[in-house]
Write a structure and sequence with these properties.
15 helices; Rossmann fold; 8-stranded mixed β-sheet; alpha/beta; about 20% strand; 3 domains; Nucleotidyltransferase, domain 5; 6-stranded mixed β-sheet
Length: about 450
């Protein structure tokens, strides 16, 4: 294979982990076939894995090209998508193709090299990379290549490029479809004329397109886990409980706006959750008034438990808290003296907390010290949320059910961050602005009038 200039840069690089962002038909996949074949032929006992988004794509993208390249040299297993390749030192190596959905099959295996193709379409990529594939390279001190064309809905490639800024084991490469001299010039010209601007920019130029409806900037989400913020000494505990109690219960611990710990337990019943909350509140010195529980299903029983008097039961469907002064007063309506008219432009409490969280994340005003699987799930979940406000005056984000459909799982880990914002919203209210305070005043006035009336009746007897 005759490599073009950009391909030669990749081959010549001594980097252990290579991140390749390139346009369609730019030559990234054909380069990897050549590179994998070279590595397999060079030394015996090498395992080389090629991972596509799906098993079908692995077959469609690479398998036939690999068979042609190693025709008459390797032995092929069509069912397992494996090629047994003889080496120069009279041994053999194995090239195995698979789909990302089968990643669990690679736990405990060893590899000399792993190639990930179309990285931006792989869900929970960093969890799989850190927990499954990165350990495969330990005993061989092996290599990995991450290739793909950007997708605005994903941040995997962008995240890898950000990682390369601080990790010397990584190197980044970028080239467009137009950098491939073997593509017909006429086709390059037609692509520019016929494709819309965003499609051309993303698919041909391999440039990042900002997802304009995204509530959270991806880079800001990643930065949360390295942010340093000024904190007060207030502590909070947020508990997310599965609707039926059969899934995992998440305990999220906060010092001001920094999450300092996270615990996860399976299949806790109501009494077990109550005892855990009491234990954590005592150990971490968290007042019950700073504890919020998802009050749906099993959570409703926890929130109303007699041993947890004072904790907050959070329900997404609650009306938003009115914290903003309404500058417009309706004529001919009586208002209590010194009582401002309060308003809120959110569909419900969950949306109010989501938009508040978005502001904190995008402006680097929130931090977290959790890592690993917890970190990756939070990033993936929050990156999915879109602003879908319709112009009716109520700010609205994608519902939890819609996010669940996109992710293929419930966004339970980010729910604790959303609930944490309840206390942020409450803190925005000074006593004179509090809707609850005004309701309390009205109740007290009614009770006073009732007692006064009763006393007057008694005096008349």
């Amino acid at each position: 294979m005759i490599l073009h200039e950009k391909q030669r840069e990749i081959i010549k690089s001594p980097a252990r982990f290579k991140v390749v962002r390139a346009g369609r038909r730019a030559g990234k996949s054909s380069l990897e076939i050549e590179d994998m074949c070279f590595d397999a032929l060079s030394h015996k006992d090498r395992n080389i894995f090629y991972i596509a988004p799906t098993q079908i794509q692995a077959r469609d993208i690479i398998w036939e090209l690999l068979r042609k390249r190693l025709h008459g040299i390797a032995e092929f297993n069509e069912q397992r998508l494996e090629a047994k390749v003889p080496t120069v030192d009279k041994g053999y190596s194995m090239i195995k193709l698979s789909g990302w959905e089968n990643r669990e099959n690679f736990r405990g295996k060893s590899a000399y090299k792993i190639v990930f193709d179309e990285v931006d379409t792989m869900k929970e990529f960093f969890i799989g990379w850190q927990e499954i594939f990165r350990p495969c390279l330990i005993d061989s001190a092996g290599y990995a290549t991450f290739i793909g064309t950007p997708k605005k809905e994903s941040g995997n490639l962008r995240r890898l490029e950000k990682l390369a800024q601080t990790d010397k084991d990584y190197d980044c490469f970028y080239f467009t479809s137009n950098d491939n001299p073997y593509l017909p010039e006429e086709e390059k010209k037609k692509a520019k004329e016929e494709l819309d601007f965003e499609t051309y920019k993303q698919e041909i130029l391999a440039e990042y397109i900002e997802n304009t409806g995204a509530m959270f900037r991806y880079t800001s989400l990643v930065d949360v886990f390295s942010n340093t913020i000024t904190k007060n000494n207030k502590k909070y505990l947020i508990v997310d409980i599965a609707d039926d109690g059969s899934d995992k219960t998440v305990f999220s611990f906060w010092e001001d706006l920094e999450e300092y710990r996270r615990e996860e337990f399976e299949r806790l019943n109501t009494e077990s959750i109550v005892m855990k909350i009491r234990e954590y509140a005592s150990l971490d010195q968290i007042p019950y008034s700073n504890i919020a529980v998802d009050a749906i299903g099993v959570g409703a029983g926890v929130a109303s438990h007699s041993l947890l008097d004072g904790i907050i039961g959070f329900k997404s469907s609650y009306a938003p808290i009115k914290t903003d002064l309404d500058i417009v007063r309706i004529p001919n309506i009586s208002y209590l003296p010194k009582a401002p008219v309060l308003t809120s432009d959110y569909k419900n409490l969950r949306n109010q907390c989501l938009f508040t969280l978005s502001e904190k994340v995008n402006n680097h005003k929130i931090a977290s010290r959790v890592s690993g699987r917890f970190k990756e799930k939070i990033i993936e979940e929050l990156a999915t949320y879109q602003d879908v406000s319709t112009g009716d005056g109520k700010r609205t984000a994608l519902s939890k059910e819609e996010v669940k459909e996109i992710l293929g799982r419930s966004p339970d880990h980010s729910d604790t961050w959303i609930m944490r914002m309840y206390f942020v919203v409450k803190e925005r209210m000074i006593p004179e602005q509090s809707e609850e305070r005004q309701n309390l005043i009205n109740i007290q006035k009614a009770r006073f009038m009732e007692r006064q009336h009763t006393q007057e009746q008694n005096n008349c007897r």
